[in-house]
């Protein structure tokens, strides 16, 4: 059984390609810009974005990556993301349907330099999300980073509090906090395998 209710998302995407208005609202554009500004490198090799939805954030990540592997539980969301990325001329992204944690991609000799967990953790039960967090940490390159960004308000489909979602990531061994930004509406945090701050990495501190 999937850890997340697939039918809920299929119903949403049957009504619209962008059910949350990610491409329309200034709130979403600003939050996306803040997430991108929080990343510890200007460019990344291999990026993984589960829960890619309609592909708006995926497009922005693709502009700073050699390759983005994006997935979503909803087949209709995958189709919407593929249409969006094709219309934008983005050719360094693969989009596939996947149910986490079972379908977490194999990394073998090519771990991810960046994993983006945005607006998805609260749909999981705790056991399933802890598996996702563990797999994310285990899939990171030596200097890789995980960014998590989640809505703070209650809603009907929420199964986990946002602080619980982020706490499961923070508890993974070998991750060092890099960014901690909280607003009334969302929590944005970044962890890295590299313990030094960005200024230290660049010889400024």
Annotate the secondary structure layout:
Layout: H1 6-15, H2 26-37, E1 44-50, H3 56-62, E2 65-72, H4 75-87, E3 93-97, E4 112-118, H5 126-138, E5 140-151, H6 162-170, E6 176-182, E7 186-192, H7 198-201
Parallel strand pairs: 1-2, 1-4, 2-3, 4-5
Antiparallel strand pairs: 5-7, 6-7
Per CATH, what is the topology?
Rossmann fold
Rg measurement, Å: 16 Å
Rough shape? globular
The helical percent reads 25-40%
Counting DSSP E segments of at least 2 residues, the number of strands comes to 7
> Mean pLDDT across all residues, rounded?
95
CATH architecture: 3-Layer(aba) Sandwich
Strand percentage? 25-35%
Domains counted in the coordinates: how many? 1
The helix/strand order is HHEHEHEEHEHEEH
Task: Summarize it.
This protein has 205 residues and is α/β, with parallel strands linked by helices. The protein is built from 7 helices and 7 strands, in the order H-H-E-H-E-H-E-E-H-E-H-E-E-H.
Question: What this model shows, in words?
Answer:
- With 205 residues, this protein is of the alpha/beta class.
- It has a single domain, classed as Rossmann fold (3-Layer(aba) Sandwich), CATH 3.40.50.
- The chain contains seven helices and seven strands, in the order ααβαβαββαβαββα.
- A hairpin with a 3-residue loop joins strand 6 (176-182) and strand 7.
- It is globular.
- The N and C termini lie far apart (49 Å).
């Amino acid at each position: 059984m999937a850890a997340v209710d697939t039918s809920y998302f299929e119903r949403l995407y049957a009504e619209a390609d962008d059910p949350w208005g990610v491409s329309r609202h200034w709130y979403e554009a600003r939050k996306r810009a803040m997430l991108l500004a929080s990343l510890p490198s200007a460019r990344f090799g291999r990026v993984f974005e589960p829960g890619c939805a309609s592909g708006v954030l995926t497009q922005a990540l693709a502009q700073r990556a050699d390759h983005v592997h994006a997935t979503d539980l909803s087949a209709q969301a995958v189709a919407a993301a593929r249409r969006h990325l094709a219309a934008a001329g983005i050719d360094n992204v693969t989009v596939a349907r996947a149910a986490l944690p079972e379908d977490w991609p194999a990394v073998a000799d090519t771990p991810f330099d960046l994993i983006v967990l945005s607006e998805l953790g609260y749909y999981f039960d705790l056991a399933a999300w802890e598996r996702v967090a563990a797999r994310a940490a285990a899939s990171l390159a030596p200097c890789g980073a995980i960014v998590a960004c989640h809505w703070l308000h209650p809603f009907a489909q929420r199964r986990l509090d946002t602080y619980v979602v982020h706490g499961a990531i923070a508890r993974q061994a070998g991750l060092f906090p890099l960014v901690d930004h909280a607003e009334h509406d969302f929590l944005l945090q970044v962890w890295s395998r590299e313990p030094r701050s960005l200024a230290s990495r660049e010889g400024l501190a």
